[in-house]
Amino acid sequence: KNQVEQSPQSLIILEGKNCTLQCNYTVSPFSNLRWYKQDTGRGPVSLTIMTFSENTKSNGRYTATLDADTKQSSLHITASQLSDSASYICVVTPGTGGFKTIFGAGTRLFVKA
Amino acid sequence: GAVVSQHPSRVICKSGTSVKIECRSLDFQATTMFWYRQFPKQSLMLMATSNEGSKATYEQGVEKDKFLINHASLTLSTLTVTSAHPEDSSFYICSAPGTGEAFFGQGTRLTVV
């Protein structure tokens, strides 16, 4: 069964600190993996997208890594800001085509001053 | 980048009434759109796939007669929650596939009282 699991479920960090969020998936075949940021009550916004051949992708203070062999991805946030408080969702698209994506449950990040 | 506009952002309705949610792709055409539902602290759950010019495809457990989907044009899909009940209160989000990824609407917070 295709699944996407994220950890931790929630995380509290101090402003300015770094953090890393994890995503493990069992989706096969695999097309691409995306990280989204979802503010409360808003739609998800794309942060990074990686195909199976890519190992890392950066977007400002966000850096995503992908290990297609172990089926693991991480999202590293550098020098966190209060506005980083949100849910971060790992989304995997199967290689069967289309955009019928599989969502992880998300990690809720709280950045405190 | 591509934009998907969803309207309304919030709606409160009485039990038994119907509510229509619109999803528009503003600067690109979308022959397919996806409708998701998200309960508090849970991940997005795919409800149905909207296809321009043909019937929508519903996920298992989603009542097609209750959640009416119409994809009237290449830029507009609508979701109508018919005879709404309090348990239908949720966050509804649409998405449309663009080049290489999916773009999400802002979401609609539905509260049925």
Could you please describe the fold and organization of this structure?
The complex is a heterodimer of chains A (113) and B (113). Chain A has strands at residues 4-7, 10-14, 19-25, 30-38, 45-51, 56-59, 62-67, 72-77, 86-94, 102-103, 107-112. With 113 residues, chain A is mainly β. In chain A, strands 2, 4, 5, 9, 10 and 11 form a six-stranded mixed sheet that branches. A five-stranded antiparallel sheet of chain A has the order 1-3-8-7-6, with no helix packed on it. In chain A, β7 (62-67) and β8 form a beta hairpin. The termini of chain A are far apart. The model of chain A has no long low-confidence stretch (mean pLDDT 90). Chain B has 113 residues and is an all-beta fold. In chain B, strands 2, 4, 5, 6, 9, 10 and 11 form a seven-stranded mixed sheet that branches. Chain B has a four-stranded antiparallel sheet with strand order 1-3-8-7, with no helix packed on it. In chain B, a hairpin with a 5-residue loop joins β5 and β6. The chains are: A mainly beta (113), B mainly beta (113). The interface between A and B is medium-sized, with 21 and 24 residues.
